[in-house]
Specification:
single chain, six-stranded mixed beta sheet, globular
């Protein structure tokens, strides 16, 4: 059982937000187990930074064990959506739920504790430059657990081995690592605390095709180790094809007409490939289309 506690509501309690309320049951029928709430939910969220509108009334569900990939052109709000899901800041409007529980109703202590079950792979890896590889991977364990140093070193060794790194890298500093190695060390650090949910922000950016595929394979392996839920932000179509159970595409809020939804596509990778929406087709195929005309005008 994770730190969110039991997934079944206590007897006599009201339904958890984000789950359907139980209806009347005919006499003589067997009660059906209530479906668990989604692992994550973004409900009617709008996000502004000053006068800039980044997200406009978006709603998303992420089920347990699912890999959701969020795509869209630069500036459409992909990374902002990811950070809202992690409750790194509060939305301007709307609500975020963790396992059916509104984050806004949680105390700072409860949020901090729940966030320990979340792992985050930042776009630039975000390793501590002054720490060695092993110290980076051990950081969360030393800060948030009472494990012995022997156990910490054992976990560090196992996580590094999981991401394909040998013990010989343990004493090296981030400045001595390639981009792909940095990403793998950062993933090992995220996995050290056995997360239930993994967030990936542009995990293959800046990597060559071979190393990009290594990272994609690690995302798949991470998903399969203990049914980890994954949310991936990317513009890499190879990553979409390889790892996505479901794909959501966002359009920049500034390009929307009144009442037009910001989510312009939701479905499987195969459905994405065959979408008839010109915006989706343009993004998937890397076709500048009318953007060339826009550049010429400007």
């Amino acid at each position: 059982m994770g730190i969110f506690g039991s997934r079944k509501p206590a007897k006599g309690t009201a339904p958890v937000a984000g789950t359907p309320a139980a209806g009347p049951r005919a006499v003589g029928t067997s009660p059906r187990a209530a479906a668990p709430p989604p692992m994550l939910e973004v409900a009617n969220v709008t996000q502004r930074f000053g006068s800039q509108l980044v997200l406009r009334d978006i709603s998303l569900l992420v089920e347990e064990g699912e890999t959701l990939v969020i795509i869209g052109e630069s500036g459409c709000g992909k990374s902002v959506t990811l950070k809202l899901m992690m409750a790194l800041f509060n939305p301007t409007a709307g609500r975020v739920f963790w396992r059916g529980r509104p984050v806004a109703a949680m105390t700072e202590r409860q949020v901090a504790k729940a966030r320990l079950s979340y792992g985050f792979l930042f776009q630039g890896a975000a390793l501590f430059d002054s720490m060695s590889v092993s110290e980076n991977v051990a950081f969360g364990l030393r800060q948030n657990t009472d494990l012995s140093e022997t156990k910490v070193r054992e976990i560090v060794r196992d996580r590094l081995r999981e991401v394909g790194l040998r013990e010989g890298v343990c004493d090296r500093k981030p400045a001595d690592l390639s981009g792909g190695m940095k990403k793998r060390v950062a993933l090992a650090r995220a996995l050290a605390l056995e997360p239930e949910v993994m967030f990936y922000d542009e995990p293959t950016t800046g990597l060559d095709p071979v190393m990009s595929d290594v990272i994609n394979e690690l995302i798949l392996r991470t998903k399969n180790r203990g049914r980890v839920t994954s949310i991936v932000v990317t513009h890499d179509m190879r990553t979409v094809e390889r790892v996505a159970d479901r794909v959501v595409m966002l359009c920049p809020a500034g390009h929307l007409r009144p009442n037009e939804p910001q989510i312009v596509f939701e479905g499987t990778a195969r459905e994405l490939e065959h979408s008839s929406d010109p915006r989706v087709h343009q993004f998937v195929n890397g076709n500048a289309g009318e953007r060339i005309e826009e550049l010429s005008i400007s």
